[in-house]
Amino acid sequence: MGRLRRIAPAGIVFIVSFAVYLRTLCPTVFVEGTGENIVCAWTLGVPHPPGFPLFCLLSKAFAEVVRVGSVAYRVNLFSALAGAAAVSALYLLLRARNIGGLAAGAAALTLAFSATFWRQAAIAEVYTLSMILVLAELFALLRWREAVRASAPPKKAAPGRKPTTKPEADRWLSGFGLFLGLGLAVHYNHLLLLPAYLYFILAADPTVLRRARAIGKAALLALLGFSLHLYAPIRSLADPPIDWGNPETLANWWRYLTAEQYQGRMFHLPLAQVLSNLRVFLADLPAELWWLGLLAAAGGALVLFRRDRRFFWTTALIAAVTLTWAVNYDIPWEINVYYLHAVLALVIWAAFGMHWAAERLNASRLRPAAVVCLALPAALLLVNFHANDLSRQTFVAQNAREILSAVEPDAALLLPQTNPTFALIYLTRVEGRAPGVQLWSLLPRGGVAPTDRAVRPAAEVPAVPEPAFVAESLRAGRAVYTVERQPADALAGFAQIPWGPLYRVVPKEKAAAMERRAPDPPPAPASLRPPSYPALRYGEEARLIACRYLLVQADYAWQRGDAAGADRRYREAEKIGISLPQAAAQLGMRYAEQGRVELAIRTYEDALAHKDDALLRNRLGVIYGRRNRLSEAGKHLRRALALDPDYADAHANLGSVYGRQGDLEKAIAETKTALKCDPGNLIALRNLGFAYARMGRKDEARRLLERALKINPNQPRVRALLDRL
User: Would you say the pTM of this structure is higher than 0.85?
Assistant: First the structure.
């Protein structure tokens, strides 16, 4: 009964947190990586590197067994259950550290209702499962230290007491190794905890280094847990709908395991951006712990320092290393989740602070103690409820459903790198909607490829030039649509007609007839409409989707001669999307193509004040080049290449600038580099062909221009020059 009495409060904490998570649970796919995570869980796919096989396996099993609602709902529900389990685990950890039940429960619920952790528990994400394993690692280390202390020879042996031997204590160290390996099979952020763990182990028992068997056993169990990453090459052989990196070969698997594609995002930010990230973290702390929690954490840190300095320094190292990594990591769309371990450290400190405060209140005054402790999670519940109530947020799925409803059953869709790509994969491959619709992705290096192959290594995915793909599809009788308008130069000879939430790509000669047939623009989902835009608090992807609705509505108005109505929507899109390079690029492109070049320049420059971006720099360089402001054009294009050295369009445009400045050698070098980055780059093929023609190298010029025409026959200047050659 005593043991049950000690564990029962953990059950209460679980029920309370799970009830809140269930009430606020997202019913379907959402922003961030949820669409990808759900598809990979249900189809046992290969998600983005380095993968999270344990999450895929457990959520798949859960979704198969618990047949409640849609697949998306079930995987979201799994995250909620894992979140509630992590909250209970924190309670048990704190009780094991002799924190009173009231303070431990309040601290556990503080984590439950902190802004970021709560959000992760309401969607299909890996971080709640990861938190369970972090707490298991800490619990195993603390129990190991207790067992090591118990194994030390007492100064005066108690009668009948049998001391624990160190080999017996090291069983907890083995358990720690297993939990660490399993944690790495969920997320590599467990690596950030290693400095803290190593400090704690060596501070608790320096002689552990002489126990090779204990170290070896822990390492082997860690390797056993980590071996779940064999999932990626095994499942890749089955070619699931998402097969990121195609890790079937040893080389591909190594690149996948080491997350090669993300390594360039680490520790390269300028100091100003690092400090800006730090300011954002500090500004968000009240939503994580509220002011009372921050005060409790400050006091609790002092209490913990006096009571258990080694555990204090362990938690301080967790917070410091996590924070240092996160502020230096260039992943702005979901940076908050990388602060979670720092938030956990602060919550642990807050638990010691609340325990100290509760101790100061007389036991007969339990009610004031309860008020002091429970005020913190209650305040966070109230403060964060509105932002984390996703129970009605279906705008991502609604947007994807509207897209599928607007196209023919066998149409081809050209998709950007962000949503609605994963939402569409979910609807077509998991729910079985519009199975005949072809999904094609626009590749960063240029061209298009089937979406299920676009995430494979570039060498394995031949890019089809976009104009050639459109022309071939139309010849085969397949309608082509694009989610975002493409630059007119990229689809020369074709028109892009607003069509519901999309743009239909048709030959220019058929544009007028298609405009008359086009359906009316759909209204944006209620949560993406002015004036409140309630969904926009959910990050960059929500704002980007809202901007797309506004831009397509503006394009309808502009096409129908309502310039005032178009400008009203353009201004609204600028208001919510100017800090998003992708949205700003779309808006500036429209101004430039409408002849309102000064507005385009202003839009690009305003956006660059928020974030330096290669696409925006390239667009500015093109505009300045056309205005014969070659020095400014070159400056922006060189900056674009500093941000993205493999940006083919920027290389080609810079080559054009050099050519106009009379430096033919540099012009040819830049243009050749563009073709190395993207062999089908039309700008580079045209420019290099024109340059060779001027130099009298007719055969080389003819080959390049013929390649350009093969990609897109609708190029009168190229055809005219070829006729002269």
Answer: yes
